[in-house]
Design brief:
Elements (H helix, E strand, L loop, with lengths): L2 H108 L3 H5 L6 H11 L3 E5 L3 H9 L3 E10 L2 E10 L2 E9 L6
Length: 197
């Protein structure tokens, strides 16, 4: 090859090699700077991820607390409702017992003594009916027909039924007394609640 071609190439190649050599430290510095910036970025991202993981762990604990609190609130509200229901039932039963006690006391005050009632008038059929029902353990005896209707009924000959109401142990009982020729032959009383289906 001719030498004139080699000289310009060598001359051209030499200054280019000097320019490339001069840029290498700058490029290495820029690469190192980019590597440092990338390392700082990766570190920042990892640090942020670590903070997010710690926050997520706290949120998991909050979720567990929320579930436990919900279960406690549900259990507590059911317990309070059950307590209130039992208290109301006890109050209702107490009120019924009080009403029955008041009724017994007022009936006892209005009713003459049993000995006086039995010896009042043995010929009076009303007294005999009430005495017979009281002897069977009933209380608050009430004849359904009026006294006049009862006298008309007893004036007729034969067997008669006299409807009445009484209480035994606080339970209302309804039934009849069978009379034959003015004498009490049978008493049929049953609790009123058995009359309904």
């Amino acid at each position: 090859m001719p030498s004139f071609l080699e000289t310009p190439l060598a001359a051209v190649a030499f200054p280019a090699a000097e320019a490339g050599t001069a840029l290498v430290p700058w490029l290495v510095g820029l690469a190192a700077l980019a590597a440092v910036a990338a390392a700082i970025g990766v570190w920042a991202v990892l640090e942020r991820l670590a903070r997010l993981e710690r926050a997520a762990a706290k949120l998991d604990a909050l979720e567990e607390l929320r579930v436990a609190l919900g279960a406690l609130a549900k259990e507590r509200s059911d317990l309070d409702l059950r307590r209130i229901e039992h208290v109301l039932i006890e109050m209702r039963d107490g009120q019924r017992r009080l009403e029955d006690s008041i009724l017994r006391a007022t009936q006892a005050a209005l009713r003459p003594a049993p000995a006086a009632q039995a010896s009042a008038d043995p010929a009076d059929p009303v007294s005999r009916i009430i005495a017979r029902v009281l002897a069977q353990g009933f209380e608050r005896v009430q004849l359904v027909p009026t006294r006049d209707e009862l006298e008309r009924l007893l004036a007729a000959e034969g067997a008669h039924e006299v409807p009445l109401e009484a209480r035994r142990n606080g339970v209302l009982c309804k039934g009849r007394v069978l009379l034959r020729d003015g004498a009490v032959t049978d008493v049929e009383l049953s609790p009123a609640y058995t009359m309904f289906p």
